[in-house]
Amino acid sequence: MDFFVILASDICWLEMEKIKLYDKTFRLYIPYERISEAIDRVADKINADFRGCTDIPVVLCILNGSVLFTAELMKRLEFNCELVSMKLSSYSGTISTGVVRNLLGPTSDLSGRRVIVVEDIVDTGNTIVALSEYMKETKAADYKVCTMLLKPDVYKKDVNLDYVGMEIPNRFIVGFGLDYDGIGRNYKDIYVLDEE
Ligand code: 5GP
Ligand code: MG
After folding, report:
1. Is 57 in the pocket of ligand 1 (CB under 6 A)?
2. Is there an atom of ligand 1 within 6 Å of 66 CB?
């Protein structure tokens, strides 16, 4: 009979209390189960709005942070959609620089298409404002903004956020796609900077 043996060392890897990325320590903050439930709720709302559509909406993954969220979200979508990616950058270390740079894409033409912009997190909102201006330039037929996380204490911009997974305080987090200087994206749980 086949069976799996879970070693104690595997359990530590599955849900670690603390992780170290370069010079900083982060502690467990949002376990994967809660992230998954939030994605279920967001997908339900998107499906309610798009199910049965006759066009093929674009799911626009904002690289790199949204890769894991986009993948999990797309598995739950119940209509035909096309994945397009675009790479933007505004963070340096743990600080938002305020300058949003377009580094890549979009990987397909968005004109005339309905677009669901998929972001990992909305913080100052500079990225989402730049994206909404870009959506107007590109002549997309319509766009909706979907973000896994929102820091409502920081976000003071006017761009409407159509689908929000979870709201969090103004803390620097990593994991589930989010990085600290390029690393930490691979953790399935979300961790917060340990300032003790
Ligand atoms: P905003 O332009 O809204 O200030 O920030 C947008 C981008 O900054 C997000 O898409 C994300 O990539 C990055 N960012 C914002 N807050 C955090 C955070 O707490 N942790 C990490 N790792 N990235 C963040
Ligand atoms: Mg992002």
Report:
1. no
2. no
Residue 10 lies in a domain: no
Whether 126 lines ligand 1, by a CB cut-off of 6 Å, is: yes
Backbone Cα Rg of the chain: 18
In the residue annotation, 2 being an active-site residue is answered as no
Q: How far is the CA of 1 from the centre of ligand 2 (A)?
A: 45
| Residue pair 110/138 in contact by the 8 Å Cβ criterion | yes
The answer to whether residues 163 and 42 touch, using CB atoms and an 8 Å cutoff, is: yes
Q: Are 150 and 156 in contact (CB under 8 A)?
A: no
pTM of this structure: 0.91
Residue 62 domain boundaries? 33-170
pLDDT by residue for the chain (196 residues), tens only, comes to 455 554 545 444 556 899 999 999 999 999 999 999 999 999 999 999 999 999 999 999 999 999 999 999 999 999 999 999 999 877 666 677 677 888 898 999 999 999 999 999 999 999 999 999 999 999 999 999 999 999 999 999 999 999 999 999 999 999 999 999 999 999 999 999 998 7
Q: Which of 2, 123, 142, 194 is an active site residue? A: 123
Count structural domains, the chain.
1
Residue 162 covered by a domain: yes
Residue 56 lies in a domain: yes
Q: Is residue 48 part of a domain?
A: yes
Q: What is the CATH number of the domain that holds 107?
A: 3.40.50.2020
Ligand 1 atom with the shortest distance to the CA of 120: 10
The span from the CA of 70 to the CA of 63, in Å, is 10
